[in-house]
Structure formats: structure tokens, C-alpha cells
Design a protein that fits this description.
176 residues; 29% helix
């Protein structure tokens, strides 16, 4: 009998039952910020409420990564006009470094493009290696938030909730 393949994971649309497992993944991923100077105790301390996740799932704006039946990552988005905004994106630390995050993001880009969206947007930490530098490798570009009132407002809210000044960046990925 063969051993189970620990690298055998897949991406699919989230289901209602997945929402309860998402905050634990978000907390585990958020704990990684404790090793970043100035971010310990800031990032990852508040998870997306399950009722909000259920709204994203019901609208088809949430993908998950699964291994066997266990959730190991997710991406939750919301439309704003013809742009799809990434609100939350996490891979459990035990599963990072296997291409799961890139697969989730690429799957999201494909779905968004096929659904008529022209771009993905997000806000993230400018210097944390698995944040803005990761997104740049996947074709995202820094965006002058002053040129986009919605994203400027989002950054202002994040700073108002205690994010260190200048630590965040708005990003965009144009879709074909």
C-alpha cells in the first residue's frame, strides 16, 4: 500500500462548511508576523468574521486549498466595479513554500478574468517578504493610492487600526 502524498493538494471554490476553518488558518499565518520587528501583536490579531466569509463564499468570491479534506489555505475577495479586491489571503505555515499561495492567487486571477474583472487589487505590507515582494513576482504593481480613493481609504483605515505609518502599500494586477 502506498503512503499518502503530503504534497497532494487542490484548489476549489469555497463551500459554506469551509468558513469555520478559515479563521484558524488566518491566525496561524498571522502568527508569523511576530518575528517581524514592529509588527508583533499588530498583524493577524483580528480574523475576518465568519459571517463575512460566508458572504464571500455565497457570492463565489472565495477559493480554498485543501489537502485530503482539510483546509490549508484560502483567498477571499470582493468586487468593486470591475476590480476584484483581495481582502484576505492565507496559507497555513505548515504548508507554505509549496506553491499553494501562488496557485490560489493564479486561480483567483483566472476566475476574475473569466468573470469580466479587469484587475485584482489589495493592500499589504510593503517590506514583508511574503507580502508585497511575493505579489510583485506574480505581476502586481505598487499603486499610488492617492490616485485611487477606495484604496487610499482602505490604507487610512489600516493605519487608523494601528498599522505602522508607511508600512502598507496598495497594489494592482491588471488582468488580460
Amino acid at each position: 500500500m502506498s503512503q499518502p502524498d503530503e504534497d497532494a493538494w487542490s484548489i476549489r471554490l469555497a463551500r459554506k462548511a469551509d468558513a469555520e476553518a478559515m479563521p484558524a488558518i488566518e491566525r496561524a499565518a498571522g502568527a508569523m508576523f511576530a518575528r517581524i520587528e514592529g509588527l508583533a501583536g499588530i498583524a493577524g490579531q483580528h480574523t475576518v468574521p465568519v459571517d463575512r466569509l460566508l458572504r464571500y463564499i455565497a457570492r463565489g468570491h472565495c477559493l480554498v486549498a485543501v489537502h485530503e479534506q482539510a483546509l490549508i489555505g484560502f483567498i477571499a475577495t470582493e468586487p468593486f466595479g470591475r476590480e476584484l479586491h483581495v481582502w484576505e489571503f492565507n496559507v497555513h505555515p505548515d504548508w507554505q513554500g509549496r506553491g499553494i499561495g501562488a496557485a490560489l492567487l493564479r486561480g483567483c486571477m483566472i476566475d476574475a478574468g473569466n468573470s469580466g474583472f479587469t484587475a485584482l487589487t489589495l493592500t499589504t505590507f510593503a517590506e514583508v517578504p511574503w507580502n508585497a515582494p511575493f505579489y510583485r513576482r506574480l505581476g502586481f504593481a505598487d499603486l499610488d493610492a492617492d490616485a485611487d480613493p477606495r484604496l487610499a481609504g482602505e490604507l487610512a483605515k489600516e493605519y487608523g487600526h494601528g498599522m505602522p505609518p508607511g508600512s502598507r502599500v496598495a497594489m494592482i494586477r491588471e488582468l488580460p
